[in-house]
Amino acid sequence: MRGIMVIKGIEIGAGAPCICVPVVEAKKDAILAEFQCLSESPADMLEWRVDAFDDYLNLNAIREILEEAAPIVKNKIFLYTFRTKQQGGNGAVNADQLNDIHEIAAESGWVDLLDMEFFEEEKPLWKIRQFHKRGIKVIASHHDFEETPDENVMKMLLEQMRAGGADLVKIAVMPKQPKDVLSLLSATSAFHRENKSTPIITMSMGKLGIISRLCGETFGSAVTFASHKAASAPGQMNLYDVSEVLKMLHEGAGGQN
User: Is 170 a catalytic residue?
Assistant: First the structure.
C-alpha cells in the first residue's frame, strides 16, 4: 500500500511535498496573529512550536491558545510540537511535564498531528498507541544537530520509529560536507522504496543541506519545512520561495503524483 495520508483533504506523500510552516512566536497575541496570517498562505501544514511559547509550563495558557487557534487553522493541517533542548529546541521539562503538555493536545480535539521525540521517550510505543486511541496521528522524530550519522544508521533509526507504530517518521541531521547530504538523500530513498505504507520526512539542515528541503518529490520526503517570520531550524527557506520552487519542480517532473 502506498504511503499517502489524507488530513483535511490534504494529501501527505503524493506528488510535491507538503509545506509546513512553524509558528515560533513567544507571546499569545503574536502566535495567534501568525496563525491568522498563515491561514491564507500556500502552507499546507502549520506547526505550533509550543516550546517557543514563553509560558509553556502554563497548561491553561496552552489550552487557551489551542481553543482560539482551532477555528483559524481549520483548513490547514495542525501539527503540535514541543521540542526539547535535547533535540535542539527551547523546552526544559521533565517526563511528567512533557506528558502533561502532550495531554493538552490529546484532550483538545483540534490537533491533527503530534510530534513525538521517539528516542527521548521511555515508552514510545505505548504512548503512540494512546494517542491513536484519542484520534491523533503521530510523527515520530529524531534530530541530530551535530552531524550526519552513517546512512545505515539513519535507515535503522527510521525503521525503529516505523516499527513503533508512528504514522509518519522524521529525521533531521546536520551535514559537514556535501557527501553527508547525499547520504541523507540515499537513506530517504531507500526507506521510501522499502516502506511504501509509511510517509517519511527528512532533511539535511543548514545552508549545505538546503537542496534536501526541495527535492522530496524525487527522493520520497513527504513534507518540507519553510519559514515565514522566523526559522525554527538552520537552512529553512522562505515559505513563498519554497512554494514556487516546489511547483516548478513538480511541473518539470510531469506533475505526476
Answer: yes
Q: Is 207 a catalytic residue?
A: no
| Inter-helix orientation angle 59-69/28-38, to 10° | 30
Q: In angstroms, rounded to a whole number, what is the distance separating the alpha carbons of residues 245 and 137?
A: 28
C-beta separation of 198 from 4 below 8 A: no
d(CA 203, CA 235) in angstroms, rounded, equals 10
Closest listed residue to residue 111, CA positions, set 69, 153, 148:
69
Residues ≥6 apart with Cβ < 8 Å to 102: 82, 114, 116, 127, 131
Question: Which of 143, 155, 192, 228 is flagged as catalytic?
Answer: 143
* Global pTM exceeds 0.85: yes
CA distances 14 to 6, 136, 183, 197, 218, Å, are: 10, 21, 23, 12, 11
Helix (H) or strand (E) holding 81, with range, is strand 77-81
Considering the candidates 137, 170, 192, 228, report the single residue annotated as catalytic.
170
Q: How many Cα neighbours within 13 Å face the side chain of 24?
A: 16
Express each pLDDT in 124-140 by its tens digit: 999 999 999 999 999 99
Q: What is the pLDDT of residues 33-62, one digit of tens each?
A: 999 999 999 999 999 999 999 999 999 999
